[in-house]
């Protein structure tokens, strides 16, 4: 079940244009492939899920473009990025992103790594990515940026070692998203549907923020006030205040739709 849902999630992200290849969706006859064509896509990016049987293991595809992933392509890894397979299939170099985040964050059950183009202006500049609307409330606690140049002996831009994976997990801290300067983003969540939805709404939010800034006026960002319940609305008693940091959001209607679209229905 877990392996089926993760391959479906990879396809959902592919169709949404978050992680995909420019040829995969049309070749597989997916009628809803149009969103994938709206970006310059590179076949990179991946999604993983923590094992529901062993919290010290997770599943991630072998080295394959996300849109092509099926359940048979998934490999089980430990939290140091070691494959549990014999013989081993070629894995992603950046599996350490997933391994070290799962190690540092027991609450995280799924991780997406993407090179989504819309987030790059924020990953590469001093302008912080901020929530623009209610679907992006998971950004309210803040969006840190990972600088790989600060990691001792890191070479290149890939998070391909325990040291770089651990440093990235440190930068992420308790947040839902971290940007990687000159590279992309990581998005984490408490389950696959939530993490997939966050990855998609992150993209929409980044586009909206860039557009709002370009307009040149004052931007009113979505704030903590917007998620707190109204006091005494319509004569009712004031509801209990919500937690200061909305860690978990839910997108109950999105997931069935995303799955069906990914499967070409
Ligand atoms: Zn990458």
Structure characterization notes:
Strands 3-2-1-4-7-6-5 form a 7-stranded mixed beta sheet, with helices on both faces. With 265 residues, it is α+β, with helices and mostly antiparallel strands. It has 8 helices and 7 strands, in the order ααβββαβαβαββααα. The protein binds zinc ion. The site of zinc ion has 6 residues, from loops.
Short structural description:
The protein is built from eight helices and seven strands.
Question: Would you spell out the secondary-structure blueprint of this structure?
Answer:
Layout (H helix, E strand, L loop, with lengths): L1 H14 L8 H4 L18 E5 L6 E5 L12 E5 L16 H10 L5 E5 L5 H4 L21 E2 L15 H11 L4 E4 L3 E6 L2 H24 L8 H4 L26 H9 L3
Parallel strand pairs: 5-6
Antiparallel strand pairs: 1-2, 1-4, 2-3, 4-7, 6-7
Zinc ion binds next to loops.
Notable characteristics:
binds zinc ion, 12% strand, alpha+beta, 265 residues
Terminal-residue CA separation = 20 Å
Helix content: 25-40%
Mean pLDDT: 82
Q: Main β-sheet, in a few words?
A: 7 strands, mixed
Percent strand equals 5-15%
Question: What string, H for helix and E for strand, traces the elements in order?
Answer: HHEEEHEHEHEEHHH
The set of bound ligands, ions and cofactors reads: zinc ion
**Unreliable sequence segments:** 20-41, 243-247
Shape: globular
Gyration radius over CA: 19 Å
Widest sheet: strand ordering: 3-2-1-4-7-6-5
Oligomer: single chain
